[in-house]
Amino acid sequence: SEQEIVCTGCGVTIQTEDKQGMGYTPPSALERDTITCQRCFRLKHYNEVQDVPLTDDDFLAILNQLGQTDALIVKIVDIFDFNGSWLPGLHRFVGDNQVLLVGNKADLLPKSVKQNKVIQWMKKSAKELGLKPADVMLMSAEKKYDIDKVAEAIEQYRKNRDVYIVGCTNVGKSTFINSLIKQFGGEEEELITTSHFPGTTLDMIDIPLEDGKSLFDTPGIINHHQMAHFVSQKELKEITPRKEIKPKIFQLNEGQTLYAGGMARLDFLQGERNSFVCYFANDLSIHRTKTEKADELYENHLGDMLSPPGKETAKEFPPLKRQEITVKEEKTDVVISGLGWINVSEAGAKIAVYVPEGSHVTIREGII
Ligand code: GDP
Q1: Which atom of ligand 1 is nearest to the CA of 169?
Q2: Which residue puts its alpha carbon closest to atom 24 of ligand 1?
Q3: Per-residue pLDDT tens for 200-214?
């Protein structure tokens, strides 16, 4: 049988097949004297953190551990996928530990968005999901907006305790940790280590803090309801906003339908002529049609006219699930987690929203 090689950094079993998986090492690296997994190698040589997906058992082990420590928990969510990037169950495990909730990717919000309204919405949503954060903040890990403020808040709330950074995959946790490391800079970089996360074979990054405590980067957790899991990597790029979102405005009469690619659909069932302002990735095409023709259009054109998903992905794409909503207030956002949102201008519209089974639709007060 094959001899098992383990990483000299974190102890994980080395493998050369699955680039995204735990312990991946390029075959050429097996020639080296000391063998480390790619994740530890990058960390050591470039101070770069890579994320590794995680199974549900490991997720539970992490949650359990968080409940047993006395620490500040910093939970990162993607504000474009608030529900999809939420970690269900975290609030039941955190015990008495305070949670600092940080919404990432604020750089993608149109300039006209009032950040305070986004924070209010995050607070309200967190509460509805059972979590009462000590504070809620926004940042852009990539553009480095407000990283310093988040670092200050961490310092303020941790009160000489350890810090655990948690988040599901794709929220920008690695980007954030990398920004933090650069921010701390200096000698501390050399003191960064990896160790096993208790009860798992997963490694976590340990960044030493001035008072002898540590800031731990926990492994990224997969949330199976993320829109990201329904599409290919290439398609994910098309639905993920990369630049500040430019709204697209549609004046609709009842009996009209909008498709956001083939990923989501909105029918205007009943109400006076109304405007629907779409906030999605700038490259995602919005298609308007008559509601009576909408089903047929989807059957015949999912994967071409209505894409993403592309032709291949369309074969496996989950059926869209319909829900009816009556918009009670003017300027209401219909939020499609992982995709964006549609602002309905006037109150009283009756609509139906369709998204792939498992992904979330929520309503909020308009943030603009
Ligand atoms: P992780 O899986 O949580 O560690 O996420 P990554 O740090 O790998 O980031 C996931 C994706 O989100 C990458 O494509 C990043 O470029 C992107 N990303 C991370 N932070 C930001 C941000 O502040 N703004 C934007 N627009 N994208 C970000």
Answers
A1: 2
A2: 105
A3: 777 788 888 889 999
Task: For the chain, give the longest Cα–Cα distance.
Answer: 72
Q: Ligand 1 atom closest to Cα of 168?
A: 3
How many CB atoms neighbour CB 186 within 10 A?
Answer: 6
Ligand 1 center from residue 295 Cα (angstroms): 35
Q: How do residues 122-154 score in pLDDT, each as one tens digit?
A: 999 999 888 999 999 999 999 999 999 999 999
CATH fold of 56-223 reads Rossmann fold (3.40.50)
Ligand 1, atom 9, lies closest to the CA of 172
Q: Please, which residues bridge with residue 363 across strands?
A: 334
Tokens 């607070």 label which residue?
123
What contacts 260, CB < 8 A, 6 or more positions away?
Answer: 266, 278, 280, 284, 286, 336, 339, 340
**Close Cβ partners of 6 (under 8 Å, ≥ 6 residues apart):** 12, 13, 14
Indicate the domain borders of the chain. Answer: 1-37, 56-223, 229-365
Output the CA torsion sign for 96, 73, 122, 265.
Answer: negative
Q: What CA–CA distance (Å, rounded) separates 124 from 132? A: 9
> What is the CB < 6 Å shell around ligand 1?
51, 104-105, 107-108, 140-143, 167, 169-175, 220
Among candidates 65, 86, 67, which has minimal Cα distance to 75? 86
- Among 225, 229, 203, smallest CA distance to 216 is for 203
State how far the Cα of 92 lies from the Cα of 226, in Å rounded to an integer: 21
Ordered DSSP codes for 245-291: PPPEEEEE-TTEEEEETTTEEEEEEESSSEEEEEES-TTS-EEEEEH
> How many beta carbons lie within 10 A of that of residue 228, not counting itself?
22
Residue 104's nearest CA partner among 180, 37, 48, 39 is 180
Distance 172 CA to ligand 1 centre (A): 3
pLDDT of residue 184: 62
